[in-house]
Write a structure and sequence with these properties.
By secondary structure, the chain is an alpha+beta fold. 21% of the residues lie in helices and 28% in strands. It has helices at residues 12-20, 24-30, 49-53; strands spanning 38-40, 71-75, 78-88, 91-99. A 4-stranded antiparallel β-sheet has the order 1-2-3-4, with no helix packed on it.
Length: 100
């Protein structure tokens, strides 16, 4: 008769610990659905509440940066990079130029 080797089944606590011990790429991939707020900070000069209330489609707002200046890009208030403005069709977009 040969002796059989028994391996105990992992307990729920051990499974939870091993699931937490993943590399950060796997962890981020598993949370790809997590919502976040992306903001581009554009400094505006001489802008009042009255100006804000008067904004309509097609309004032009003067900024304190040159059109070729890089502007900060933040995700959930954390600076992640710098962007520049770009026009794509009839939309204004930003292109990431540098990572923070």
């Amino acid at each position: 008769m040969s002796a059989a080797t028994l391996t105990p089944e992992p307990r729920p606590a051990e499974t939870a610990v091993s699931a937490r011990v993943q590399n950060s790429d796997d962890l981020l991939d598993s949370m790809s659905w997590l919502p976040c707020r992306v903001t581009v900070e554009v400094p505006v000069v001489r802008f009042t509440i009255a100006d804000l209330l008067a904004l309509t489609q097609g309004s032009i707002v003067e900024t304190a940066c040159h059109h070729t200046s890089d502007v900060p890009l933040r995700v959930n208030r954390l600076l992640i990079g710098w962007t520049e403005f770009e026009v794509i069709g009839d939309r204004l977009a930003v292109r990431v130029t540098d990572q923070a």
